[in-house]
Amino acid sequence: MKISGAKIVVETLIEQGIDTVFGYPGGQVLSLFDELYQCSDRINHILTAHEQGAAHAADGYARATGKVGVCIATSGPGATNLVTGIATAYLDSIPMVAITGNVPTSIIGRDSFQEVDIVGVTMPITKHNFIVKDIRELADTLRSAFKIAKSGRPGPVLVDIPKDVQVAQWDFEPKKDPVRPYPLKFASELKLKQAAEMIKASKRPYIYFGGGIISGKASAEIIELAEKISAPIGCTLMGLSAIPKDDPRFLGMNGMHGQFASSIALDEADLVVALGARFSDRATGDKKRFNKNFSIIHIDIDSAELDKNITSDLTIQGDIKDSLYRLLPMLEKTERPDWDKRIAELREEELRRLESAYVSKKDFEKKCENCTKPCSMTGIPAENRLDPYAIIDIISEKAGENDIIVTDVGQHQMWTAQRYPFKKPRTFLTSGGLGTMGYGMGAAIGAATTGKRSILFTGDGSFGMNLNELATAAVQNTPLVVVIMNNGVLGMVRQWQTLFFNKHYSNTTLNRPTDFVKLAEAFGVKASRAFTAEELEKAAAEAFSENRPYLIDCAVDCNEFVLPMLPPGGSIDDIITEIK
Amino acid sequence: MQNNQYVIGAIVSNISGVLSRVSGMFTRRGFNIDCLTVGETESAEFSRITVVFHGDEDIKDKIIKQLEKLHDVKEVEVLDPQETVIRELLLIKVRNTPQTRQDIMTAVEIFRSKIVDYSPTALVCELTGETSKINAFIDLMKPYGIMEMCRTGIVAIERGDNCLTTER
Fold first, then answer.
1. A164 and A224 in one domain?
2. What is this model's ipTM?
3. pLDDT digits over A151-175, tens only?
4. Which residue in B19, B71, B74, B168 has the most chain A C-beta atoms within 10 A of its own C-beta, making it the best mutation to test that interface?
5. Which CATH number goes with the domain that contains B29?
6. pTM for the full model?
7. Do A374 and A482 sit in the same domain of this protein?
8. Domain extent at residue B106
């Protein structure tokens, strides 16, 4: 039977197991939205406030579930509004299919109303993209898009569908099952044996993993490997939540704001087993210094990542779960008491440093030179003010282990990454590679559509970028707790200005009179403000008792810093652990 | 071929946009292209791209791996210059004067070039060969007055029965 292209799109989405899509209607997707209307009992479309929110929501949905996220936008501005969201997904290897409408094929290339060559625009930020000019190819192109998005190292794929193709009629026969990914790549046996030999010969091995462990579902294998070879574990920002924070061998995050013990132990290791990580500049700092003291075994599904940023001593392309599954029996249980002892010392040292930093902070009455809010405005003495870690602790005590933690980008993101006690994979959603301020609201909404509660830690800067999505949250009415760490400044940039630009706080002092509580209420979202731990306890108790969105505006001192810090392009030798 | 130059042959899907994808990858990742040609193959489904670039072994490996990641790139191979026939075509228009005509004709003969258009004021010569031969011929023509020229960039194919196949 012949059906319209628009119907083919919706039927193919359903065939691919998609039950939720995020989007925004417009002139060139009217037919598609008409079909979504008619099929609303089989597929749920969530209308966001802005297409960027839809792209982030599809991304958040994908990160939280492991499924492919789908977003839909009209041509021209609708399509370009997706761009930041697509790039965010691309840099973090998130499976996504973005569908855009376009002007009819007959007027493509004439600068028609709302015409943009979105395939050209998104070529560098998608795994692949398509424009479908022939109705006969529509269903199979969409299937290919899903196949590409979820195969190997996942990523976003865009399918641009001109209006006339949506209107044209063609035969459609639904497939029984969603498309399967391309066959996995398996590591070479010889190379795994070499890896085993290197691990056996090592005195101080260190396991270093990235986001590939989450997409490759290899959490259990990592823990087993660490146990078997008595190695500490560190991870990149993208790896967080893959293994429980309280795992006895887990030291936390590495990189620019990596935790002290984790970073020092990495540098003292003689062998780093890098799994599903890509050695980004934020993770390694100075590439010449990074691996001065250790050899590297690098295993990744994407061969292009091997020797791309850091040259390793052994590179293995292969599925990470399978690689570890086959590597484990090649290794014997090995005790490394000296290394264990050293790691324990580093952990103690880290605690001591945290403690003393905390004390010195409390003793130090901070002065704000350039801004008046919120720290001095509140008139609250330093010892009663909300500490960023305390905010995270109070929230995490109320949160369940299945709740999904989302962040925006900046200081609050790093504090959350350092502090939050993640328990399960896919419970931490953050824009790692692209560092997209404004990612959080959309992503948190996308994650909350799965039925789980999402908790967004954001800053007043990041929140300001996409706060219009409060409207979406209010309509969806799903449990979503927004925690704004409001310090009245663009804290991360300000931190750099403090350290590297002679405290020239150029355009980072917001000092805006925005009242986030009133703002949330105007959107129809309950909200309250917290200046002290007691107030936050109270607000959090209320927020978590609600099964709908709730915003808490927390006052944070603008002189709080994210530490430790490796200066950009610097190394572990330059680690900054306090700012005077 | 210069010392640090590599020639890559790639079989790609014969659909619109492929050339942008391939050349875009080079730009985006900061790799330099010395020369790129694209054309039909024995199969209507595929085109063949020949890329020449310079760099070290490490750059070469990175380029190959990034090319292999492109969905429309079906097969990529670095061609060993010793085992490969490399050719380029030149069309060059030289000023035709009674004083220079004979010298040009002699050069054309020695280089096994061909005069493909003749007018009282201009000659168009066609020359096929390796890049070094083309360069030498152009140098030789310079004193006679080159009015315009264009060259195709190189195409390359392996000797013997080695083939770039599309079976992935």
1. no
2. 0.91
3. 999 999 999 999 999 999 999 999 9
4. B71
5. 3.30.70.260
6. 0.95
7. yes
8. 87-155
